[in-house]
Each structure stands twice: as structure tokens, then as C-alpha cells.
Amino acid sequence: VLTAHSASPLLTLVLLLLALFLAWSYSSPPLYLNRHGLGEACGAVLVPVLTTVVAFQVHTGQVALLPLLATAPLACFQFAMLLSVNFPDAAGDEQVGKRTLVVICGPAQGSRLLVAALALAYLLLPALILLGLPAQAGLAVLLTSPIALWQVWRMRRGAAVDPTQWDALAFWSIGLLMAAAMLETAAFILLWP
């Protein structure tokens, strides 16, 4: 239906097929990306980035830089969130041969990856603004930094290996992603001519 109503049907079809392929490949044959340490990266590209790019393309008929700029920090947050939800499952995942990044790297390195992903989201903001992300959208993402700093503090204090911390760690990782997405959306709505 989207392809039939698109201003650029072939491009819409290609993007939708790419999205479907990645979504299928995340947990299904032949690639099983979430079993080989690539699921987190796949989810980070698929959910915030490719979903936004497809929606933008369907509405405008083109692919543009702005959706990529706007979703770059969200991809970092999605990656961190996927890491956080894998900490509780690491032992079971390892037993059944599901090699998530947390299983491959271990909780200490997984914790460092999570912190690095959060830091990258904010460190990218000046470059994203220079490339064309409206400063208001960048500021909207920056407003979520207290949540990220709290997550970093918790990771430094061992949340990755403390089962009593896992639910809150996952909850606030999801909250960070959703807060950034909603604040950034609000900034774009306010900028709408």
C-alpha cells in the first residue's frame, strides 16, 4: 500500500524490503543477527533510523540527510538499551548459544560499550548541528543527559552484574530513548513553519 501511494514507489519498495530483511534477520534464519553479536547494531539501525527514513521517504518521495542527523543519537540510545536488556539474559543466552554482545564481551566490556554509546550520542551533537540538525533538536536531545549520566554512574557502580539493578537499568535505558525521541519530535513540531 505504501509503495502504491508513494511519490517514488521503487525507492519506497527498496527501503521497505531492506527494513523487512533486517527485521527478519534480527532473530530468524539465515543470519540470526542477534545470535552473532550483530543484533544490537541491527536494532540500532532498524528501529530509530530506518523507520524514520522510510516514513520520511514515503511522505516526501526522497531520502534526505535530516532524518539521518536526527536519528543518529537515537541509534546510540537504542544500541545502549539493547545492551542493557541483554545483561539479565547473558547466562541463559550463553547456554543456548545466543552470542549477544554482552555474552561475547562479558558484562564489564558490555558495560563499557553501553557507556560509550551514551557518550557518543551527546558527543555527536555539535557535528550533527554543523551538518544541518536544527540546534533546537540538538538541545532537546541534550536535555536527556541527566538520565544518561545517571545510567553511566550506575554502570560504573556495577549495575551490569547486579541482578537487583537490571530491571531499573532496562527501564531507564528505554526511558532515555523514548524521552529523547519525544523531545526531539517536540522540537521539530515547534520548528514547523
What is the overall pLDDT average? Answer: 96
> Stretches where pLDDT falls below 50 for ≥5 residues?
none
Number of strands: 0
* Binned strand content: under 5%
The major sheet is characterized as: none
Count every helix, treating DSSP H or I runs of 4 or more residues as helices: 10
| Fraction in helix | over 70%
- Give the class from helix and strand content and strand pairing: mainly alpha
What is the general shape?
Answer: flat
Report, as a whole number of angstroms, the end-to-end distance. Answer: 29 Å
Radius of gyration: 18 Å
Encode the helix/strand succession as letters: HHHHHHHHHH
Structure commentary:
It is a single chain. The protein is mainly alpha-helical. 77% of the residues lie in helices and 0% in strands. It has helices at 2-5, 9-27, 39-60, 65-86, 90-95, 101-123, 125-131, 135-142, 145-156, 166-191. Helix 3 packs antiparallel against helix 4. The radius of gyration is 18 Å and the shape is flat. The two termini are 29 Å apart. The mean pLDDT is 96.
